[in-house]
């Protein structure tokens, strides 16, 4: 069965323990709960331990593998405090991901992103098709790098330039008759 992996990696303006990130931190569990109730949601990466004394990068993520960051994050922010806001989840279909991202609590939180996140010159999320296997954090970092390097392709794409098994699809999920030249990877 084909499913979708969906991963985000945005850069916080301030580290997690900074007061400016507190509202984002407070909303995160609620957004996760909203995702988990969505009919198209399958599962998400969550740590196998519940130790508050560990940084995100030090946690045991179980089958999702160790936390990994895209190369552009490591190049620009690797020497500073950890400021990546990362998610990795599995969904049954593309429309379900779109419905979650662009509605309800997630959308209202997304509209506030300028309060918490630093603008970056690379993609902050990626979508790709998987089988029954569970994606890893390294898969997610590699797919973000692929999308940044090549633009949307069947192996790594965004929600505006999505692909299904037949090729590019429109924002409504219908196959495109003629791909927009701007959407074709270079």
Q: What features would you describe in this structure?
A:
There is one protein chain. The protein has one domain (3-183): Alpha-Beta Plaits (2-Layer Sandwich). The longest helix is centred in the N-terminal third of the chain and has 16 residues, at 22-37. The strands form 2 sheets. It has a 4-stranded antiparallel β-sheet with strand order 2-3-1-4, sandwiched between helices. It has a two-stranded antiparallel ribbon with strand order 5-6. The protein is 30% helix and 17% strand. With 186 residues, the protein is of the alpha+beta class. It is globular, with a radius of gyration of 16 Å. It is built from 6 helices and 6 strands, in the order E-H-E-H-E-H-H-H-E-H-E-E. It starts with a strand and ends in an 18-residue tail after the last strand.
Keywords:
186 residues; alpha+beta; Alpha-Beta Plaits; 4-stranded antiparallel beta sheet; two-stranded antiparallel ribbon; globular
Label the structural class: alpha+beta
Strand order, biggest sheet?
A: 2-3-1-4
Number of strands: 6
Mean pLDDT: 88
Which shape, going by the Cα principal axes? globular
Largest sheet: 4 strands, antiparallel
Q: Which residues sit in consecutive blocks of at least 5 with pLDDT less than 50? A: 174-186
- The fraction of residues in strands falls at 15-25%
Radius of gyration: 16 Å
Instruction: Give the helix proportion (percent range).
Output: 25-40%
What is the highest CATH level, the class?
Alpha Beta
